[in-house]
Specification:
This protein has 213 residues and is α/β, with parallel strands linked by helices. The chain contains eight helices and five strands. Bound molecules: P1-(5'-adenosyl)P5-(5'-thymidyl)pentaphosphate (T5A). The site of P1-(5'-adenosyl)P5-(5'-thymidyl)pentaphosphate has 26 residues, from helix 1, helix 4, helix 6 and helix 8.
Amino acid sequence: MNGKLIVFEGVEGCGKTTQIQLCSEWLQSLGISILVTREPGGTELGLHLRRLLLDKSPAKPIADRTELLLYAADRSQHVEQELRPNLAAGKIILCDRYIDSTVAYQGYGRGLDMSLIHELNAIATDGLESDITFWLDVDVEVGLARKRRSGDVADRIEQEAIAFHRRIQQGYAQLAASYPERIVRVDASASPEVVQKQIQRILTDKLKAWGYM
Ligand code: T5A
């Protein structure tokens, strides 16, 4: 049986990492073989790109189109080296961000041409789509406040103005409306445990339909 690609998306601090961790523990407790990965940085090459993209020092500008190409390069390597082989091995993949991040951040956030973004996504993924994408929906201010409380130094993208983050949030809402069969909105403003319950409820139905349960 081919594996399944489960993607988690949302604005900064929406809780993807936390939910992926909880989800991976749950799936492992069911005896399901999983891979946890992320973009950018799911491969060795991707880790180099991630360092360039998410530098925490302010004085290293990256042009918007360069940024788009670096995310596409990271994704192309990730699909080829990690996603396709692990899906072929039957694994359930939990992936922190995928194509919708590029549409939301570089498209809605930076204002780059959408048709160019879709074309680059198609090249980078070679047609590989997620089986389900969870959009963890939380107010931009709530997400950024969570990040501040965590004490991490803000990276290049987190340092952007609030209007940039709001455009990204609108982008996710638009994406969810455009692809209702693939993108599932989850209210991510509740506690991690409550959010996880919503995700497990939806995934239980999916896992049954896919023959894992
Ligand atoms: N990007 C990425 C693009 O611009 N284009 C692209 O194509 C791609 C793929 C990735 C950056 O790259 C950009 C988007 C991003 O800016 P990253 O470090 O991976 O950078 O950053 P994020 O993906 O945004 O991940 P974060 O770590 O910032 O946030 P998470 O994973 O959403 O949140 P998490 O789980 O780490 O939680 C953040 C804090 O909130 C707490 C946690 O304990 C933690 O302290 N928290 C909660 N608090 C209260 N209630 C809850 N329900 C909570 N859930 C978590």
